[in-house]
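The instructor's notes for this session suggest beginning with a concrete chain rather than abstract definitions. Hand out the sequence below and ask the class to guess, before any prediction is shown, which regions might be ordered.
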Amino acid sequence: MFRFSPVFRACWAASPLARRPGRSAARLAMSTSSSGIPGNMGMDHVGITVPDVDEAARFFMAVLHAEFDWEVKRDPTPNAREREWDTLFNVPPESHMPHVMMLKCGDHFLTQYLELFAWRPLNYGGNKGEKNWTSFDQVGNAYVGFTTKNIHAVAAHIKQIQPEWPGLRIIQDPPMEFPLRGEVCKSFFIVTPWGMWIEFSEWSESGPKGQVVKALRQQGHFPGAS
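After discussion, reveal the predicted structure:
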């Protein structure tokens, strides 16, 4: 069984956190007292910008035993300016997103997905996002996505709490709506007060059933993948 060292226990006993647990608990209670996102069904996916989607997918398939779920490939044109992504995602107007892929990283319904993005030209930090947060096209940028039961109720909730969180804003109002994975997805992003992005989604088939539609799931998408 793991045990903390005597030095660690002594340092912790002398720390302000150990001496004042009530204050920290009170702050947490204040931050969680208001109602949260309505109909939240759990974390759906984490999106990560990578240099090469295929290479990253092979890694996650080999190391995490992830499974291929779906992908989208795009030509260089129309570019970000022509798609209006330069203002939406705060990326250079001439950039484009040639490859997106979703991987399943577990057996739980709806959740445990990893979404991989590639942007061109590669950005290793030259373009910054809001509040100096990593921009959407920067390699290493990440965001979290949640599945919800009613996307419009979530949007209404965000608008209601905006005055409590200066800097919180909604991207894509009304939500996007597009066919994917044999069903219809509605989604929108928010930007947190510190500049991080969070996505909320509602699925036409998976949500009501409480499970993922596997019609497009493919085993062995890459050589050597199981």
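Then share the key points. DSSP finds eight helices and eight strands in the chain. Helices lie at 6-14, 16-19, 21-32, 53-64, 80-83, 85-88, 151-161, 206-209.
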